[in-house]
Amino acid sequence: MSRFTDIARVTAMRTCLSGCTALMFVVAPIAHAENTVTAQAAQWKGIGRPATPAEVRAWDIDVRPDFKGLPKGSGTVAHGQEIWESKCATCHGVFGEATNVFTPIAGGVHEDDIKSGHVAALKKPTEVRTTVMKLSHVSTLWDYIRRAMPWNAPRSLSPDDVYAVTAYVLNLGSILPDDFTLSDKNIAEVQARLPNRDGMTFGHGMWNVKGKPDVHNVACMKDCATEAKIASSLPEAARPAHGNLADQNRLIGPVRGVATIAQGAADKSTAGAAGGPAAAALAAGASTPGASTPGAAVQPLLTKGACLSCHQAESKLVGPAFKEIAAKYKADAKAPAMLAAKVKNGGAGNWGSVPMPPAAALNDEEIGKVVRWVLDGAPQ
Amino acid sequence: MQALTAHLGRLKRAPEGFLQPEQIRAVASGRRGFLRSAFAAAAGLGLAGAAAAQSAGEGEDVILKPQPWATTLGQPVASHPYGQPSQWEKNLVRRESPGLTRVSAASVAFSPLQGMFGIITASGLHFERHHQGWEDIDPSKHRLMVNGLVKQESVFTMDDLMRLPAVSRIHFIECGANTGMEWGNVAVPTVQYTHGMLSCSEFTGVRLIDVLDHLGYDRQKGRYVLAEGGDGSGMTRTIPMELVESGEVLLAYGMNGEMLRPENGYPLRLVVPGVQGVSWVKWLRRIEVGDMPYATKDETVHYVDLMPDGQLRQYTSIQEAKSVITTPSGGQMLLDKGFYNVSGIAWSGRGKIRRVDVSTDGGRNWRTARLETPVLSKALTRFNIDWTWDGTPAILQSRAMDETGYVQPKINQLRAVRGTRSIYHNNAIQSWKVAESGEVSNVQVY
User: Which of B444, B442, B445 is nearest to B194 (CA)?
Assistant: First the structure.
């Protein structure tokens, strides 16, 4: 994209801001397609009513890039800081830097950006994109604070408060000085200082339904060019991150969900027998706990008995956590036999209505080992 | 059991003598053992279960032995005045992606595409995306205001809107950030998380153009519409008037035969077919006709696509052609070698799906899938294709082509133009690796 194209677009946008419309969008009135239901104004008499001026004032609060809709008023950076620290900082951080709740507001802007109108850091493969880096219109910031902030009490700020908070955010963003007073009189000058005021483009095909796509593929059918290797697969560490996938799939049908438990590498022997790079990684992962621990010794049995589809060590899944079972029955001398019978034959009712199916794949000796391990507190 | 027998012995004539719900539940509670075997047969327990559930010799217990559901009285009508899915379907629910967002009121719940059929999303499984939580608005207090470049700025009640000529249309809605986690690399395990910000419903409502015509909008200057929500976020997006004039944009109150669910904008939302979900403003309270785009937060600061040259694409809207195989898909396990019906969905924001091709060898060779009817413009289209798995590793892909001739791209083709940081509008071909074990996982291949 040439610099000249950028300038042309920016010029078009400014032209648009000063009153001319729709230059870069190239849209024009068209005949109504499939417009078979023509509105019959006369027939609709009595449906809907005129809006009163007060009603329109109450709801029409949007502020456009040409500042149409902006109420008169003003606010200082200093007052903005007071509001910020009492109403905004809990989510956004005192300096607008917070990432605990929302993406950071301020930062990432260089003085040169204010001259160029384009935030240079957006070209770098940086992870963080702050609001001030992306902001192309000061009206957007004002409008959004007015309509939706603070998050838990939208529309509780007066227009003067909104000017003040807007000024403070731009001060945090190194765009306005500490002693600045933002008002409807000078907001256009502030717009002219916005670091990323020219950092946008409409030169894409995804605004208008007739826009031209920018990425092209061909529908090759035979012996198409591909790269043999897998470019990316799910990292092993991410495998349990979305919970147990066995519990996120239907219990019938052509497939089942894979058991991916949150603890350890328990069910991986299921996939470990497979070939291919992904399976090899899984197989490697399966050995990490080390076969010498009690947990590792019992893992193959838990897999064979499909126990891990419904149970995990620490917390309830479909069935109770192994540790919950241990806590409940530890002192009960009859528990080993009772639990072994439950595992062997299946059962329901002790922990909820979902029945446990019989562990048909395990013999009595294997069931005994599993039950002892569970009653020992399911050690790693 | 004794108490139950006592009750049974006192049965009166119908209708008073019908079993009480708790009695039926007692019968069905597993004391007679039927649920154990039923569960074992149903759950299958991977590769071993189905055989285990079968009695040796004569046949299956579920056939040879009387089953409670065939030998007892079932539950009465309207036991659930608003029906519920079967108790066996609890696994198919909307879910958040852990770590994606930090606050559940400004988050996403993904649709469980891995277990869905056809093209219509059950309303309870429609994906959720809220910016400031969801509300359940009293519809008698909801108003739609239309102002700006119209001859008569007006207010409509729901009573008004529901009197007007109505249309019902089936359209997909997809969040612009759907599949956004996968721009750089594989990040999530299942189709619920890769593609689940996608739903498709029959929407019923009034065409926005009819209302604007009625109010006398300025056809020359009024080239843009601002849509505004009535919730705390006051969500706003600019819609080009050209889209409204196509007759496709709806003021919708109905979804799949009932009113919109609260999470989907009850009692009124904008429907903007082919355009990303953020423009389908929920809890819609105001339409303003204007002569320029409004530069709202969610079209110029968020929902902007960052290009490698540092430019932010603003007002990105159209969802380009895309498809994904839902069965089998990531996080699933094939139960055996042999025949499978590979099934998936395709859609395009530019019109109808013309064709879907499927590859089982990572994109080297392709076969054309069957498109199931109906094939509708800007709606999900279901495709199916036969596949016999021989037990060797495979990589499944689907590739959609829409009626403009546009072909769904590969991820590396997208990256070559747009880099890896744009977050939005990742419509790449999805690859699912099938390992020898039968486990299906999310991978990317070029």
Answer: B442
pLDDT for residue B54 is more than 70: no
- B91, B309, B334 member nearest A250 (Cβ): B91
Query: Any idea which of A25-29, A77-81, A201-205, B65-69 has the lowest mean pLDDT?
Result: A25-29
Q: Between residues 30 and 69 of chain B, which touch chain A (CB distance below 8 Å)?
A: 30, 35-36, 39-40, 42-46, 48-49, 52
How distant is the alpha carbon of residue A19 from its chain centre? 37
CA-to-CA separations, A275 to A259, B154, B388, B433, B434, in angstroms, rounded: 19, 67, 19, 11, 10
pLDDT in tens, B97-106: 887 877 777 8
Quote ipTM for the complex.
Answer: 0.85
Does B26 lie at the interface with A, CB-CB under 8 angstroms?
Answer: no
CB within 8 Å of chain B, chain A residues 247-276? 247-258, 260, 270-276
pTM (two decimals): 0.77
Burial class (CB in 10 A: 0-12, 13-18, 19+), A325: buried
Q: What is the per-residue burial (b if ≥16 Cβ within 10 Å, else e) of B216-246?
A: ebbeebbbbbbbbbbbbbbbbbbbbbbbbbb
The candidate with the shortest Cα–Cα distance to A216, out of B132, B338, B412, is B412
How many angstroms separate the Cα of B104 from the Cα of each of A104, B98, B132?
Answer: 18, 11, 9
Beta-bridge partners for B199: B173
pLDDT in tens, A196-206: 999 999 889 99
Whether chain B has a CB inside 8 Å of the CB on A32: the answer is yes
Q: State whether the Cα torsion B109-B112-B113-B117 is positive or negative.
A: negative
Whether the CB-CB separation of A306 and A297 falls below 8 Å is answered with no
